[in-house]
Amino acid sequence: MSPPSSFTRRPRLLVVSPNRSHQAVLARRLGAEGYSIVTASDGATALGELRRSAIDVVIAELVMDPMSGPELTRSIRDQAAFAETPVILIASRAEADPAVRAFEAGAEDVILKPFHFEVLVARIERRRAAAARVAALRADMEAMDARAAMKAIELGELKDRMVQLEAERRRLPA
Questions:
Q1: Which residues of the chain have pLDDT under 70?
Q2: Boundaries of each Response regulatory domain copy (predicted)?
Q3: What is the pLDDT of residue 3?
Q4: Which has the closest alpha carbon to 60: 49, 45, 73?
Q5: Domain annotation for the chain: domains and CATH numbers
Q6: CA–CA gap between residue 96 and residue 110 (Å, rounded)
Q7: Considering only CA atoms, which of 110, 78, 77, 76 is closest in space to residue 91?
């Protein structure tokens, strides 16, 4: 299952896992799907990678030390530059209430192990598409704000011109 061709550049995923073999498997499989992969073994390194390069989706383990997946998610949400970056947390079925903790922290999705790899890819694409829609809406709002500002300037200029014309009309003999 390849990522849709409607996205122009190769999507960058940040895979965060303290388990090097799990990290390597995800990186290899996602790389084979056409994604550009950046890896990190802990939350602090992940935050550094976010600052270094544009990341489309963060995929992190729920249980990590010293910063857990939910703590990483909160840190991402607290930084305006990354607040809209989708986060998917991977949890073990043995963990108590993983989805609740993940969603409370601001994660967009939780996937439980063991999972079908195709499901992970589908969820990544769903989150990327949603993020693209939000970015398009934000750009439209900014364009509308700019048009509204220009119209306000034009109205101000028309008002000034009207005042000038009215003053000229009063100066003319009746």
A1: 1-8, 94-96, 174
A2: 12-128
A3: 45
A4: 73
A5: 12-134 (3.40.50.2300)
A6: 13
A7: 110
